[in-house]
């Protein structure tokens, strides 16, 4: 069985023990991100850019971005 587990950015962030502000700050080290923008992405108000997804994965130490459920 080829079952994949997909986690939302919110689930990943919470499991890391980060607030939205902390996650935004960490992502901001790689690509422009503030807390407002992060909240919009996490709450599906705005779509993630490719570079933001890569930065999120780097912060979360995820080597395979297919694990992140963005839709």
What is this structure's SSE topology?
Elements: H1 9-16, H2 20-27, H3 35-42, H4 50-59
Helix pairs in contact: 2-3
Can you tag this structure with a few keywords?
71 residues, globular
As a percent range, the share of helical residues equals 40-55%
**What general outline do the C-alpha atoms trace?**
globular
Strand content: under 5%
What's the Cα radius of gyration? Answer: 12 Å
Low-confidence stretches: none
Computed structural class:
mainly alpha
Distance between the termini: 23 Å
Could you report the average pLDDT, rounded to the nearest whole number? 90
Main pleated sheet: none
Number of strands: 0
Q: Count every helix, treating DSSP H or I runs of 4 or more residues as helices.
A: 4
Order of helices and strands: HHHH
Description of the structure:
With 71 residues, this protein is mainly α. It has four helices and no strands. It has helices at residues 9-16, 20-27, 35-42, 50-59. Helix 2 (20-27) crosses helix 3 (35-42). The longest helix has 10 residues, at 50-59.
Provide a quick synopsis of the model.
This protein has helices at residues 9-16, 20-27, 35-42, 50-59. The protein is an all-alpha fold.
């Amino acid at each position: 069985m080829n079952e994949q587990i997909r986690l939302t950015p919110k689930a990943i962030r919470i499991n890391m023990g980060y607030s939205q502000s902390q996650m935004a700050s960490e992502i901001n080290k790689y690509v422009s991100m503030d807390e407002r923008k992060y909240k919009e992405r996490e709450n599906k108000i705005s779509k993630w850019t490719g570079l933001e997804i890569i930065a999120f994965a780097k912060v979360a130490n995820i080597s395979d971005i297919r694990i992140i459920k963005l839709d």
